[in-house]
Write a structure and sequence with these properties.
Largest sheet: 7 strands, mixed
Helix content: 10-25%
Strand content: 25-35%
Number of strands: 7
Distance between the termini: 32 Å
Structural class: alpha/beta
Number of helices: 5
Radius of gyration: 15 Å
Bound molecules: S-adenosylmethionine
CATH superfamily: Vaccinia Virus protein VP39
Length: about 180
Amino acid sequence: MDWKVYQQKTQNRNPSKLLEEALQYVNGKNALDFGAGALADSRYLLNKGFSVTALDSTAMTSLESPRFVHAITPFEKYIFIPHSFDLIHGRLSFPFVPSKYFNEVWNGIRSSLKHGGIITGEFFGPKDTWTQLSISEQDVYALFVGFEILKFEAREYDKEDSQGRMKHWHVFSLIARK
Ligand SMILES: C[S@@+](CC[C@H](N)C(=O)[O-])C[C@H]1O[C@@H](n2cnc3c(N)ncnc32)[C@H](O)[C@@H]1O
């Protein structure tokens, strides 16, 4: 995947509907946009009054705000500070953590969320065209042991990706509270 091209194609995308839905559960205003891409959701969160850390190894654009930090670094090199975020949002991004670092990064994500904080985002299922990134429904649940699941939705459909290529989507969307 060429992330520069991806980010160019998605820079005018609407905020994530899942993120909009998740905000009703969030107390506090410190957010991590995990795999922030072209920053559509970071911009949305800033407009909602959040302080936002946008984590991504590729950055085609940035945002001007004293409440914005752009962490331009690979997921696996980011230093997660325990109990620092009220919200961690990973729109289509958690599956792109390199598999050999996934457990370590996931532990960092879990620990950096404050008690009562919200994680939201998507995972790809076994029937997704990007199969190398897929995990099963049970695997997703296992990642959230100890969390309260506020939403879990599995969907399958055919639709073009952001670069106009037809793709079979098998997506698990999730909102969970620590
Ligand atoms: C599918 S895109 C999602 C971007 C954004 N959340 C959105 O929905 O538009 C995945 C993002 O993860 C970033 N990414 C992929 N591998 C990464 C890694 N190892 N470390 C940090 N960022 C990575 C890419 O640059 C890309 O912006």
